[in-house]
Structures are given as C-alpha cells and as structure tokens.
Design a protein that fits this description.
17 strands; globular; about 450 residues
Length: about 450
C-alpha cells in the first residue's frame, strides 16, 4: 500500500510539474502573427505549405503564403510558389482556446480530449445517410463507449512510430519579441500529442485552430489533423471486429445512392474495404473474363472518379474483344488473374515517356488509348501494356519455378541467363504473339 501511495504521489507531482514547466501565458492582444507549417515526404518526393494568421481590421485572417512540391518522378511537376492568398476569417474563440492550450497543457488522453460518445457517432452515421434507411445494424450494441475508448488506445495512444515524414508546426510570434512553438510528426489519427517545451500535450484546440486556418485549401496533413480521421479509425476498428464490416456496409448502401447506382450499373462489385469515403473494391464488367478485375480505390463522393473508372473499363473491354494472344491465353487459365488498377485522384493511364529512348514511336502514343495490367499465375507474374494498332509490350516477367519454365506464349529464354536478364528483358509483340523487338530494361 505504501509503495502504491509513493507511485501515486510521484504521478501527481510529475503531472503538476509538467504543467508548471510547460505553461506559457500569452493573450490574444500579445499575438503578432501565427505561422503554420505542414510538410509530408516519402520515397517519391515531398510537399509543404505555409499558412500565416494575422490580425486585420479587428479580425484574424489566414493566408496561404507558400506551397512547394519536390517530386523525384520526372512525370510529376515540382514547384515552389510564394503566394499571399486569403483563406479564411478565424473565430477569436478558436484563438483563445489555442492560447489556453499553451497556458495549461494536457499530458494524457482523457474522456474530454476528443469528446466522442457513442450517441454522437451513431447520430453522425444516420445523419450522413442520403437515402432512406430501410435496414441498419444494431448500432447501440455495435458502438459503445468501451469500444470507442479501446479504439482510441489502439490508434492514438498505442500507435507504432514509423520512418515516414508527416510534420506540422505551429509557431506563435508575440509582441514581446519571443515565440512559442508546438509541433507533431506523429502518424496517428489527429497526430496527437503535440510537443511543446519538450513535453507532450493532448489538446484538440491546436488542431481546431489549424483546421480553421487551412480552410478549404489542399494542404498536407489536413485530413490527418481533423477529428474525422479518428472517427474513421474507430469505424475501422469496429469493422475489424465484425466480419460483415457493418459500418462500411451501411455507409456504402446509404451515403452515396446516386453514385452507387451508377457504379453498380456497370460493374459487379466485390471485396469492399473502406477508409472514410474512399472504398477499395474489385470491379468487373460483364465483358471481362471471370479472372479479370479492376482493383480500385474510389472516392464515392466524387462522380468524376466513377465516370473515369467506367471509361477505363470500357477501353479494357474493347481490348478483350480483340483477338490478342496474351488476353486469349490467360483468359482460358482460371488459375491466373488480370489485375488492372485505379487509385483515387490519379489517372488510370500510365505515362509512356520512359519508353522514349528505346521505343520512341510508342512513347508518343496517346496513353488514354492504352491499357496496362499485372498478370499473376502460379509461379509467375508479368506486367503488360497494350497499344492501339495491335501491339503489346511485356516490360517485366518473373518465373519462380525450379527449372524456369515459362508459358508457351513466351519466347524461349537462355536457362543460364541471370534472373535480372530473364525478368527485365522486354518484348514487343504483335497481336498474334510474333516478336517485333526486344531489349533489356528501359
């Protein structure tokens, strides 16, 4: 008992001492400006944006002052744009809450940190429905406060750290010629906690201020900082515990009635997995063989994305109707699979510029007239691009059988060649399978 009292005493002292060390008192009249820096980076490059908040005519206004993109892929544009574009008017109440957050920090998650209750989540799901609800899961049993707390512990408190870079920094410059900085590089929903004076604080007031300052601008970390990211994590946690994915199924059925109707008119849909409004699903048209599908990540709120997928599927169907040796051979192999792809916000038509040195004429082809796909079969995988004018390009082919046997449609390979030579030798075929050209890598 005495040991427990000592531990409890130390905990109280630590929290009190933490608050004492970290607290900084700044009034709104002492704020000169606030600069919000957001940045993300990965293997393909990075993006950043700076937003400045200043007092003008007795109001707090936010401006986008800089936006950069550094892309390693030459197909994507890099830029460094210095702007001064007005974004939004920020409520004085949000600023006061931000300043209260640096006056007294919150070193731990409490029931008040996020303010999420079962009733709020259930009401939110039902209010978001755009079609009459005729059948719904028993939400009161599915979504409880214990489930919410468990999901928060798993997704925020107990999240594993990775090497990915997603950074947000809020710097408050004062009329006292000093500054106060809060930062986070956490990859969890809401990105809490913030680091402040070498201490952690779990305070959504910082997030709410940043969200208001960003407004409708497309800025890195925007979604991650929002409370909606935590709601989605809770819904995913619930669906992970239920094989029927009841929350995702409910939203799929009732949140996008017009777009869902359009999608189901053109595709057979299977294997739905959701994160927010983006659904990963497998789509197959009536003209596709049973072993072909488009592996899509579709934002169901965006009609233009659905129309893009429909248009791409129509082009795929045209190729399947042609007498092509690859499509014909693998369509009759039920143990193989054609995997086409579409990802939200991206074009399904791959750039062909990387072919310019070795296949200059093909590189000039309108990519929206081509299709590309992975082929998978037992012990082998390959990547193909099909062009108008009866030409088919094999860019990669890996065989893992002990003796290196290949399907009969492939040119014979030197059994003594290296794995790299076997896998990265490209072949250009006509529709009948005659080799028109070959080489190593692009």
């Amino acid at each position: 008992m005495k040991k427990l009292r000592v531990i409890a005493g130390l905990l109280i002292f630590t929290i009190f001492f933490t608050k004492t060390l970290a607290q900084v008192k700044v009034t709104s009249t002492q704020v000169k400006e606030i600069v919000i820096h957001n940045a993300v980076a990965g293997l393909g490059g990075g993006m950043s944006a700076d937003v400045k908040v200043v007092a003008e005519k007795d109001e707090w206004h936010s401006y986008l002052v800089r936006k950069t993109s550094q892309q390693l892929n030459p197909e994507r544009k890099s830029y460094d744009s210095t702007l001064h574009r007005f974004i939004a008017v920020i409520s004085p109440q949000l600023l006061n809450h931000l300043l209260s957050g640096i006056a007294v920090i919150n070193p731990a998650v409490t029931p008040l940190t996020f303010g999420l209750t079962a009733q709020k989540l259930i009401e939110g799901l039902k209010n978001d429905a755009k079609a009459p609800i005729t059948q719904a899961p028993h939400f009161e049993k599915l979504i409880t406060q214990k489930v919410i707390d468990d999901a928060i512990i798993k997704s925020v408190v107990g999240i594993d750290r990775t090497d990915d870079y997603e950074y947000c920094e809020v710097t408050i410059f004062t009329t006292r010629n000093d500054s106060v900085k809060l930062s986070t590089g956490n990859l969890c929903p809401t990105k809490l906690p913030w680091t402040f004076n070498n201490h952690f604080t779990y305070d959504m007031a910082v997030n709410n201020f940043v969200a208001a300052a960003i407004g409708n601008e497309d800025i890195p970390n925007k979604e991650a900082l929002n409370i909606s990211s935590l709601k989605e994590s809770i819904y995913n946690y619930i669906d992970d515990q239920n094989p029927d994915a009841l929350v995702a199924t409910f939203r799929w059925m009732y949140d996008y009635p017009e777009n869902l109707k359009l999608l189901t008119e053109h595709f057979t849909i299977t294997e739905k997995i959701s994160y927010g409004n983006v659904f990963s699903c497998w789509l197959r048209t009536r003209a596709m063989p049973a072993n072909a599908s488009i592996e899509g990540r579709i934002d169901m709120t965006r009609r233009e994305e659905i129309n893009t997928v429909i248009g791409y599927a129509g082009l795929i169907d045209q190729y399947f109707k042609a007498d092509n040796f690859v499509l014909k051979y693998y369509s009759n192999r039920p143990d193989s699979h054609f995997a086409f792809s579409y990802s939200t916000g991206q074009s399904p038509y791959n750039s062909l510029r990387y072919l310019s040195k070795k296949l200059p004429e093909l590189s000039k082809t309108d990519s929206s007239k081509t299709i590309s796909f992975w082929l998978g079969a037992p012990d082998e995988s390959s990547f193909w691009i099909m062009f108008p004018g009866s030409k088919t390009l094999l860019t990669y082919h890996s065989v893992t059988t002990p003796n290196g046997q290949t399907a009969p449609i492939y040119p014979p390979q030197d059994p003594n060649a290296t794995w790299t030579t076997k896998s990265y030798t490209w072949y250009l075929f006509d529709d009948a399978g005659k080799v028109l050209g070959q080489g190593l890598r692009f």
